[in-house]
Amino acid sequence: MLVDSRRGLVVSGSLLLGGLALTLVVFHPATGPTVQAVDDAVWEAAGSARNAPATAVSEALSVLGSAAVNWPLRIAALLLLAWRRHWLRAAAFSLAVVSSELFIGPLKAATDRMRPPGALIETSAASFPSGHAIATAVTAVGLVLVLAAPGPSRWRWEVNAVVLTSVMALSRVYLRAHWLSDTVAGALIGAGLALGWPALLMAIRHRRDPAASTS
Q: Is 1's pLDDT higher than 60?
């Protein structure tokens, strides 16, 4: 995405529009009940599939997506980028982190969606969107974009980042901390921001200097 900024902007825009569209579908009176019916079915399926090993794994994944894990990773990545003097990558990652954190609180307050009943872990604030999904997507996808060199290896790591985000998000559904639509919206928003900022800054740099690098 740092090499082809146009593609990065298209993908980012598509993800963010998908998150916006899902938000509208979830809360529109005409479509909300259908989405809730799907969420209810997934909630019931998660409850019927509950077992001790799966719960332990889900709890571990939930911790992996928490602020206690995400913030040290983010700070370490920014320090490494600063040490390497990759200023554009550091700026893009910082903007993705800051913008995502600024999104979570106001969007939760605006939607004020109730959490699913019977959560297996402690929760706080409103349910939509999943802050864990947003934070994990920003951290995982962002780390790959700013630390991995362009090429086939980056694509493999990007796929791994998407898989990690998806599995962590599903763990939150399994633990009944979120509805399925909460986590999907959060992952779309987080990934869109993580992809969009590097692409935008690189597009600006290329317009000013077509020969510029991604440092």
A: no
